[in-house]
Specification:
Number of domains: 1
Number of strands: 5
CATH superfamily: Gcn5-related N-acetyltransferase (GNAT)
Strand order of the largest sheet: 1-2-3-4-5
Number of helices: 6
CATH topology: Aminopeptidase
């Protein structure tokens, strides 16, 4: 290996296993509540946001696992441990006349990043969009989250510069 090749092997690349970890991606179940909420808390901590309060946690579990689900939530499990999750829901494009799969959250615990789990969870979400015959998949990224931005750019995702995100909290 040349010195140039050795220099490139830094950061997450250096610690990647030579083969992918066994991974199961499945819908969140009611019995997963504690593990699912722990991952949501870990994302809040990572983003330096307040964790969901008690009422929000109850609604999140109801909306992800109840009989009238409002979102589709998936766990990524490896070696029996919940190491990541994704939350999806559909919006609609009047111009494509097809649903859009919106990726609300995708999160992998820091200790499991760089092992391909995030890429496989994202591919699962993309496959779900295709299965549902969506015209596209969309999400937002915090501007300071350079690792996530690099991750999406490596997947050839395109940043929508002409659209501005607005929000009203009710």
């Amino acid at each position: 290996m040349t010195k140039k090749q050795q220099k490139k092997k830094t950061g997450p690349e250096r610690s990647r296993p030579s083969h992918p970890r066994p991974l199961v991606i499945r819908p969140v179940r009611s019995s997963d509540g504690k593990n699912f909420l722990a991952l949501v808390d870990a994302l809040a901590d990572y983003e330096k946001l307040p964790r969901p309060d008690r009422a929000s946690r109850a609604r999140l579990l109801r909306d992800a696992t109840g009989p009238r689900r409002r979102v589709d939530a998936y766990l990524a499990l490896t070696d029996g441990a919940a190491v990541g999750y994704a939350i999806l829901f559909e919006t609609y494009s009047s111009f494509l006349a097809r649903p859009t799969l919106y990726l609300e959250d995708i999160f992998i615990l820091p200790a499991y990043r760089g092992s391909g789990i995030g890429r496989r969870l994202f591919a699962f979400c993309r496959g779900e969009a295709r299965r549902r015959r969506c015209g596209r998949m969309e999400w937002v990224v915090l501007g300071w989250n350079r690792p996530a931005i690099r991750f999406y750019e490596r997947l050839h995702a395109r940043r929508m510069k002409e659209w501005l995100l607005y929000r009203i909290t009710l």
